[in-house]
Amino acid sequence: MKGAAATRIVAWGIAITLVVLPVVGVMQGWFAAGRWPVTQLKVEAEFTHVSAEQIRSAVLPRLGKGFFATDLDDVRRAIGALPWVESVEVRKRWPDTLLVRIYERQPFARWNGNRLISRQGQVFDAPGADQMGDLPRLSGPDARLAEVVSFYAQARKSFEGRAQMSVVGVSLSERGSWSAITDSGAEIVIGDRDQADRRLARFLDVYPQLIAGHRGGFAYADLRYTNGFAIRWPQQDTTATPKVGS
Protein backbone atom coordinates (compact mmCIF):
# COMPACT_ATOMS: atom_id res chain seq x y z
CA MET A 1 0.00 0.00 0.00
CA LYS A 2 2.77 2.37 0.90
CA GLY A 3 4.51 1.56 -2.38
CA ALA A 4 1.36 2.34 -4.38
CA ALA A 5 0.88 5.61 -2.52
CA ALA A 6 4.47 6.58 -3.23
CA THR A 7 3.99 5.81 -6.93
CA ARG A 8 0.90 8.03 -7.06
CA ILE A 9 2.79 10.85 -5.34
CA VAL A 10 5.63 10.58 -7.86
CA ALA A 11 3.18 10.53 -10.77
CA TRP A 12 1.39 13.62 -9.50
CA GLY A 13 4.75 15.29 -9.00
CA ILE A 14 5.68 14.67 -12.64
CA ALA A 15 2.28 15.89 -13.87
CA ILE A 16 2.49 19.09 -11.84
CA THR A 17 6.03 19.67 -13.08
CA LEU A 18 4.93 19.32 -16.72
CA VAL A 19 2.17 21.87 -16.16
CA VAL A 20 4.33 24.33 -14.26
CA LEU A 21 7.42 24.19 -16.48
CA PRO A 22 5.87 26.05 -19.47
CA VAL A 23 4.62 28.75 -17.12
CA VAL A 24 8.04 29.06 -15.55
CA GLY A 25 9.57 29.07 -19.03
CA VAL A 26 7.42 32.00 -20.10
CA MET A 27 8.18 33.82 -16.85
CA GLN A 28 11.92 33.39 -17.43
CA GLY A 29 11.77 34.28 -21.12
CA TRP A 30 12.43 30.81 -22.50
CA PHE A 31 9.64 31.18 -25.07
CA ALA A 32 9.93 34.94 -25.51
CA ALA A 33 8.76 36.40 -28.83
CA GLY A 34 12.29 37.10 -30.03
CA ARG A 35 13.97 33.94 -28.82
CA TRP A 36 15.14 31.47 -31.52
CA PRO A 37 13.77 33.50 -34.44
CA VAL A 38 12.43 31.75 -37.55
CA THR A 39 14.77 32.80 -40.35
CA GLN A 40 14.39 30.05 -42.95
CA LEU A 41 11.43 29.55 -45.32
CA LYS A 42 11.10 26.40 -47.40
CA VAL A 43 8.22 26.18 -49.89
CA GLU A 44 6.82 23.31 -51.93
CA ALA A 45 4.49 24.49 -54.71
CA GLU A 46 3.76 24.06 -58.40
CA PHE A 47 4.51 27.74 -59.14
CA THR A 48 2.14 27.66 -62.11
CA HIS A 49 0.02 30.63 -61.07
CA VAL A 50 1.45 31.46 -57.64
CA SER A 51 4.92 33.00 -57.76
CA ALA A 52 7.74 32.73 -55.23
CA GLU A 53 7.66 36.51 -54.85
CA GLN A 54 3.97 36.45 -53.89
CA ILE A 55 4.68 33.83 -51.24
CA ARG A 56 7.63 35.75 -49.83
CA SER A 57 5.59 38.94 -49.66
CA ALA A 58 2.85 37.16 -47.73
CA VAL A 59 5.14 35.31 -45.32
CA LEU A 60 8.11 37.59 -44.60
CA PRO A 61 6.18 40.10 -42.43
CA ARG A 62 5.28 37.16 -40.19
CA LEU A 63 8.82 35.81 -39.78
CA GLY A 64 11.51 37.04 -37.46
CA LYS A 65 9.56 36.15 -34.34
CA GLY A 66 10.65 33.48 -31.93
CA PHE A 67 10.16 29.87 -32.92
CA PHE A 68 7.36 29.40 -30.39
CA ALA A 69 5.79 32.81 -31.05
CA THR A 70 5.38 32.35 -34.81
CA ASP A 71 1.64 32.02 -35.48
CA LEU A 72 1.06 29.25 -38.04
CA ASP A 73 -2.61 30.17 -38.49
CA ASP A 74 -1.60 33.73 -39.32
CA VAL A 75 0.85 32.49 -41.96
CA ARG A 76 -1.75 30.10 -43.36
CA ARG A 77 -4.35 32.85 -43.69
CA ALA A 78 -1.89 35.21 -45.39
CA ILE A 79 -0.93 32.66 -48.04
CA GLY A 80 -4.51 31.40 -48.41
CA ALA A 81 -5.61 34.94 -49.36
CA LEU A 82 -3.59 34.76 -52.61
CA PRO A 83 -5.96 34.36 -55.60
CA TRP A 84 -4.68 31.03 -56.94
CA VAL A 85 -4.17 29.24 -53.62
CA GLU A 86 -6.54 26.32 -52.98
CA SER A 87 -5.10 25.16 -49.66
CA VAL A 88 -1.98 25.55 -47.51
CA GLU A 89 -0.07 23.38 -45.07
CA VAL A 90 2.31 25.12 -42.66
CA ARG A 91 4.55 23.64 -39.97
CA LYS A 92 7.73 24.46 -38.08
CA ARG A 93 11.00 22.61 -38.00
CA TRP A 94 13.35 23.24 -35.13
CA PRO A 95 15.18 25.47 -34.62
CA ASP A 96 14.54 28.19 -37.22
CA THR A 97 12.62 26.89 -40.26
CA LEU A 98 9.08 27.33 -41.54
CA LEU A 99 7.87 24.65 -43.98
CA VAL A 100 5.05 25.56 -46.38
CA ARG A 101 3.21 23.33 -48.87
CA ILE A 102 0.88 25.12 -51.31
CA TYR A 103 -1.79 23.53 -53.48
CA GLU A 104 -2.88 25.72 -56.38
CA ARG A 105 -6.38 25.99 -57.75
CA GLN A 106 -6.88 24.06 -60.98
CA PRO A 107 -9.19 26.06 -63.27
CA PHE A 108 -11.96 24.06 -64.90
CA ALA A 109 -13.92 26.78 -66.73
CA ARG A 110 -14.58 30.51 -66.98
CA TRP A 111 -17.67 31.73 -65.19
CA ASN A 112 -19.69 34.71 -66.43
CA GLY A 113 -16.77 36.04 -68.42
CA ASN A 114 -14.27 37.24 -65.83
CA ARG A 115 -14.31 34.65 -63.04
CA LEU A 116 -13.08 31.07 -62.83
CA ILE A 117 -14.42 27.76 -61.55
CA SER A 118 -11.92 25.42 -59.92
CA ARG A 119 -12.03 21.65 -60.35
CA GLN A 120 -13.34 21.56 -56.78
CA GLY A 121 -16.36 23.61 -57.90
CA GLN A 122 -15.33 26.88 -56.25
CA VAL A 123 -15.80 30.20 -58.06
CA PHE A 124 -12.87 32.58 -57.60
CA ASP A 125 -11.35 35.75 -58.98
CA ALA A 126 -7.86 35.72 -60.43
CA PRO A 127 -5.77 38.06 -62.57
CA GLY A 128 -6.00 37.25 -66.28
CA ALA A 129 -9.09 35.06 -66.00
CA ASP A 130 -10.68 36.75 -69.00
CA GLN A 131 -7.64 35.86 -71.11
CA MET A 132 -7.97 32.09 -70.64
CA GLY A 133 -9.69 31.42 -73.93
CA ASP A 134 -8.90 27.70 -73.90
CA LEU A 135 -11.23 27.07 -70.95
CA PRO A 136 -14.93 26.24 -71.35
CA ARG A 137 -17.13 29.34 -71.11
CA LEU A 138 -20.04 28.89 -68.74
CA SER A 139 -22.53 31.51 -67.63
CA GLY A 140 -25.71 31.78 -65.61
CA PRO A 141 -27.04 32.78 -62.18
CA ASP A 142 -24.52 32.09 -59.41
CA ALA A 143 -27.10 30.06 -57.47
CA ARG A 144 -27.36 27.60 -60.39
CA LEU A 145 -23.66 27.01 -60.95
CA ALA A 146 -23.83 23.26 -60.36
CA GLU A 147 -26.73 22.94 -62.81
CA VAL A 148 -24.81 24.84 -65.51
CA VAL A 149 -21.75 22.61 -65.07
CA SER A 150 -23.97 19.54 -65.30
CA PHE A 151 -25.65 20.78 -68.47
CA TYR A 152 -22.27 21.51 -70.05
CA ALA A 153 -21.24 17.88 -69.49
CA GLN A 154 -24.58 16.72 -70.92
CA ALA A 155 -24.24 18.89 -74.04
CA ARG A 156 -20.66 17.76 -74.71
CA LYS A 157 -21.74 14.13 -74.47
CA SER A 158 -24.58 14.73 -76.95
CA PHE A 159 -22.09 15.98 -79.57
CA GLU A 160 -19.48 13.24 -79.13
CA GLY A 161 -19.07 11.26 -82.33
CA ARG A 162 -22.12 12.84 -83.97
CA ALA A 163 -20.79 15.99 -85.61
CA GLN A 164 -17.49 17.52 -86.61
CA MET A 165 -17.79 20.11 -83.90
CA SER A 166 -17.76 20.27 -80.12
CA VAL A 167 -19.37 22.32 -77.37
CA VAL A 168 -17.03 24.81 -75.68
CA GLY A 169 -19.55 26.64 -73.54
CA VAL A 170 -23.14 26.82 -72.32
CA SER A 171 -25.27 29.55 -70.82
CA LEU A 172 -28.49 29.76 -68.83
CA SER A 173 -30.56 32.91 -69.17
CA GLU A 174 -32.49 34.54 -66.35
CA ARG A 175 -35.67 33.15 -67.95
CA GLY A 176 -34.33 29.60 -67.82
CA SER A 177 -33.43 29.13 -71.49
CA TRP A 178 -30.31 27.09 -72.32
CA SER A 179 -27.83 27.80 -75.11
CA ALA A 180 -24.61 26.15 -76.26
CA ILE A 181 -21.55 27.57 -78.04
CA THR A 182 -19.57 25.42 -80.47
CA ASP A 183 -15.84 25.50 -81.15
CA SER A 184 -16.54 27.47 -84.35
CA GLY A 185 -18.30 30.18 -82.36
CA ALA A 186 -21.83 29.25 -83.44
CA GLU A 187 -24.65 29.64 -80.95
CA ILE A 188 -27.30 26.95 -80.49
CA VAL A 189 -30.41 28.03 -78.59
CA ILE A 190 -31.95 24.96 -76.97
CA GLY A 191 -34.62 26.27 -74.60
CA ASP A 192 -35.97 24.18 -71.72
CA ARG A 193 -33.61 21.59 -70.29
CA ASP A 194 -36.22 18.84 -70.11
CA GLN A 195 -36.39 18.92 -73.91
CA ALA A 196 -32.67 19.41 -74.51
CA ASP A 197 -31.80 15.78 -75.31
CA ARG A 198 -34.62 15.40 -77.83
CA ARG A 199 -33.95 18.73 -79.54
CA LEU A 200 -30.20 18.20 -79.79
CA ALA A 201 -30.68 14.66 -81.13
CA ARG A 202 -33.11 15.93 -83.77
CA PHE A 203 -30.67 18.65 -84.83
CA LEU A 204 -27.62 16.41 -84.93
CA ASP A 205 -29.42 13.68 -86.87
CA VAL A 206 -29.87 15.98 -89.88
CA TYR A 207 -26.78 18.12 -89.37
CA PRO A 208 -24.60 16.34 -91.97
CA GLN A 209 -27.23 17.06 -94.65
CA LEU A 210 -27.70 20.64 -93.46
CA ILE A 211 -24.02 21.47 -93.52
CA ALA A 212 -23.42 20.06 -97.01
CA GLY A 213 -22.30 22.88 -99.29
CA HIS A 214 -21.67 25.29 -96.39
CA ARG A 215 -17.94 25.24 -95.75
CA GLY A 216 -18.09 27.95 -93.15
CA GLY A 217 -20.68 26.15 -91.04
CA PHE A 218 -23.64 27.87 -89.44
CA ALA A 219 -23.62 30.94 -87.22
CA TYR A 220 -26.80 30.39 -85.24
CA ALA A 221 -29.38 27.67 -84.68
CA ASP A 222 -32.69 27.92 -82.80
CA LEU A 223 -34.01 24.52 -81.77
CA ARG A 224 -37.14 25.73 -79.99
CA TYR A 225 -39.53 24.92 -82.83
CA THR A 226 -42.07 22.13 -82.40
CA ASN A 227 -41.29 20.35 -85.66
CA GLY A 228 -37.98 21.84 -86.76
CA PHE A 229 -35.40 24.52 -86.14
CA ALA A 230 -34.04 27.71 -87.65
CA ILE A 231 -30.54 28.07 -89.08
CA ARG A 232 -28.66 31.26 -89.89
CA TRP A 233 -25.59 31.02 -92.06
CA PRO A 234 -22.66 33.45 -91.81
CA GLN A 235 -23.02 36.80 -93.62
CA GLN A 236 -26.63 36.11 -94.58
CA ASP A 237 -29.71 37.93 -93.38
CA THR A 238 -32.20 35.23 -94.35
CA THR A 239 -33.11 32.38 -92.06
CA ALA A 240 -33.91 28.89 -93.30
CA THR A 241 -36.25 26.76 -91.20
CA PRO A 242 -36.09 23.10 -92.26
CA LYS A 243 -39.01 21.04 -91.08
CA VAL A 244 -38.19 17.68 -89.56
CA GLY A 245 -40.24 15.15 -87.71
CA SER A 246 -40.82 15.81 -84.00
From TrEMBL:
Keywords: Cell cycle, Cell division, Cell inner membrane, Cell membrane, Membrane, Transmembrane, Transmembrane helix. GO terms for biological process: cell division. It holds the Pfam family POTRA_1. The chain crosses the membrane at residues 9-31. Residues 36-105 form the POTRA domain. It comes from the Bacteria. It is a single-pass type II membrane protein. The keyword ATP-binding does not apply. It is found in: Cell inner membrane; Membrane. InterPro entries: Cell_div_FtsQ/DivIB_C, FtsQ, FtsQ_C_sf, POTRA, POTRA_FtsQ_type. Its main location: membrane. Gene3D superfamilies: Cell division protein FtsQ/DivIB, membrane protein fhac. Part of a complex composed of FtsB, FtsL and FtsQ. Belongs to the FtsQ/DivIB family. FtsQ subfamily. Essential cell division protein. May link together the upstream cell division proteins, which are predominantly cytoplasmic, with the downstream cell division proteins, which are predominantly periplasmic. May control correct divisome assembly. This is Cell division protein FtsQ. It comes from Luteibacter sahnii. The lineage of its organism: Bacteria, Pseudomonadati, Pseudomonadota, Gammaproteobacteria, Lysobacterales. The gene is ftsQ.
